[in-house]
Each structure stands twice: as structure tokens, then as C-alpha cells.
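REVIEWER CHECKLIST
Item 1: Sequence provided? yes
Item 2: Single chain? yes
Item 3: Sequence as submitted:
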Amino acid sequence: MQPNGKLPIGIVSKTVVSDAEWVEARVTFMKLEAEHKAATVELANKRLLLPWRKIDQEYVFDGGPMV
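Item 4: Structure as written out by the authors:
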């Protein structure tokens, strides 16, 4: 804590809870994480289904020609 009694920027005060409350909060958060992961996997699968585009002109990668 700083001399003015405030927490430094970016530091959030945490609530202290019982083990049972912590487990309940953690389980709820884990469900959110699982939903997020499922959405990420679904988005990645949709990305794989995107069509390709035909490139008619010749081009060279930044590292030089690929052989």
C-alpha cells in the first residue's frame, strides 16, 4: 500500500472468503473457462473451413525465394 493509503495502479484488493465460498467461486470460474475454450475451438474449426484464394501473381516471401 502506498503512503496515501491507496493501492498501486493495477493492484486490486481481494476479498477473503471461506474454503466453501472459494470452491464455489472457482467452480463457477472453471465453467466460464470451459465455455471460453469451447468457443475458441469452434472459432478455430470455422477458420479451417474458410475457402482459399487463388493467387495469380508471383510473389516472394520476406526471407527470399522459397525453393
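Item 5: Key structural point noted by reviewer: The two ends are 60 Å apart (CA to CA).
Item 6: Recommendation: ____
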